[in-house]
TrEMBL record:
Cell compartments where the protein resides: Cell membrane
Keyword Cell inner membrane in record: no
This protein's name: Synaptobrevin homolog YKT6
GO biological process, one term: endoplasmic reticulum to Golgi vesicle-mediated transport
Entry-linked CDD domains: Longin (cd14824), R-SNARE_YKT6 (cd15867)
Keyword check for Cell membrane: yes
Predominant cellular place of this UniProt entry's protein: membrane
UniProt domain V-SNARE coiled-coil homology: residue ranges: 139-199
Length: 199
């Protein structure tokens, strides 16, 4: 089981989201792939947060990865995202996201949200390392009241999160956040994964 990235995101309704703090562990990828993979983790984090309504949680699978999103909303308008492999338990992922947002709210004043570059929240790196073992996340929160009160939507592919008529390939092509190398990497990976599908 592996956690690839973790992020706290400012997610105001009807406005683009902003990553306030993030950490990633891309050590399982080759040195040459890490830049492109990192860009895609950031791209999918923002895309999924923008399409998760406030007060909801959802899990979105893309290729061999799953992004778990908790858009808490409220006065802070914060969301958190964890990108893992498909074996990482859903319950542990959402326990971790709840703890991460609570800790962020306790340590970072809302006035700092307007200048994300100045936010210091090194705890995000600690969470990323500590919760590579999902049992650590479950030990944090034995009681899952919030999880039970909120519906978790599992989308089988990124396409099911997108708006009607919107395609992930089109989003990738139009994205200014991705370099040409990352776009080419995505298309190559997509082709390689599609050749192995059994009908």
């Amino acid at each position: 089981m592996k956690v690839f990235s973790l992020a706290v995101v400012l997610a105001p309704p009807s406005k683009p989201c902003t990553v306030l703090s993030s950490a990633s562990d891309l050590s399982t990828f080759s040195f040459y792939q890490r830049g492109s993979v990192g860009e895609f983790m950031a791209f999918f984090t923002k895309t999924i947060v923008d399409r998760t309504p406030q007060g909801q949680r959802q899990s979105v699978q893309e290729n061999n990865y799953t992004a778990h999103v908790y858009n808490r909303g409220g006065a802070e308008q914060l969301a958190a995202v964890i990108v893992t492999d498909q074996e990482y338990p859903v319950r542990s992922a959402f326990s971790l996201l709840t703890k991460l947002i609570d800790d962020f709210i306790a340590k970072v004043p809302m006035s700092a949200y307007s200048t994300p570059a100045s936010i210091s929240f090194p705890e995000v790196n600690n969470y990323l390392q500590k919760y590579q073992d999902p049992r650590q996340a479950d030990a944090i929160m034995k009681v899952q009241q919030e999880l039970d009160e909120t519906k978790i939507i599992l989308h089988k592919t990124i396409e099911s999160v997108l708006q009607r008529g919107e395609k992930i390939n089109d989003l990738v092509d139009r994205s200014n956040a991705l370099s040409m190398q990352s776009k080419a990497f995505y298309k190559t990976a997509k082709k390689q994964n599609s050749c192995c599908v059994v009908m």
